[in-house]
Amino acid sequence: MPxxxxxxxxxxxxxxxTGETLLxxxxxxxxxxxxxxxxxxxxxxxxxLGPDGTLVVPTQTGDLSDPAVWSNPPVPQDWxxxxxxxxxxxxxxxxxxxxxxxIPETVRTWPGALRSAHPQTSxxxxxxxxxxxxxxxxxxxxxxxxxxxxRLEAFHARVLLLGAGYDTCTSFHLxxxxxxxxxxxxxxxxxDGWEVVTEVSITSDRFDELGYDFERDTGVVVRGxxxxxxxxxxxxxxxxxxxxxxxxLHRSHxxxxxxxxxxxxxxxRRRQGRRT
Length: 276
What we know:
- With 276 residues, the protein is α+β, with helices and mostly antiparallel strands.
- It has helices at residues 37-49, 80-86, 102-108, 130-134, 148-154, 171-176, 207-218, 236-250, 265-270, and strands spanning 21-26, 54-58, 114-115, 123-126, 158-162, 183-190, 193-200, 222-226, 229-235.
- The strands form two sheets. A seven-stranded mixed beta sheet has the order 3-4-2-1-5-9-8, with helices on both faces. The protein has a two-stranded antiparallel sheet with strand order 6-7.
């Protein structure tokens, strides 16, 4: 699918608003060679946001999931009981993120950073609104109304795709909770042993197509370059609102996997490698 032509002002340091709340999805390798690597990127974002701004990143741990749904690579079935019995439970202070890149992992370990409580789809944040964004992330709500995404929407936050594609845009998942979507059983390690919870089925399949239409139809996406990377900047609320309509029109229940994020094909792919 061809990319739409650039529109609006370039995404530059000055495009970010001092004091705003910003959700960043990123790919360090797409920026080119960055002197100082992810530390430089995080410092630059924090500097641009200023002391009153809040930086938020996904720090997901899709590997804390049922080995029965792992596919890249799968593991032998006779391993499953042992994996379920011995997999460490999520610890927001210790458990590393997986598949979201080195920039979120750098934010997670940054002095003063906080992290939300969900064992598979946590977010980390730095700044004065960090606790307001992250608190109350319900253990049975990965990316819905009781997740940081709903808080970000309410706080008029914006999304920055920094070398990352729309397939990484977690804001679209919030829309999945607001349209008819199947429920699934999700297995994961818990503080008292293996547990199974009921969740909304989520998938990032077709998010690239959704993002293309969102960008073309709304005119709210600011596009530009950051180093060698494409950058896109847009409000969380606009992305969610558009995705609700788009998913209702373009996705059927057959498009949604029957067992997600211990389950969802996206975390299975992320087991194979991380966005760098």
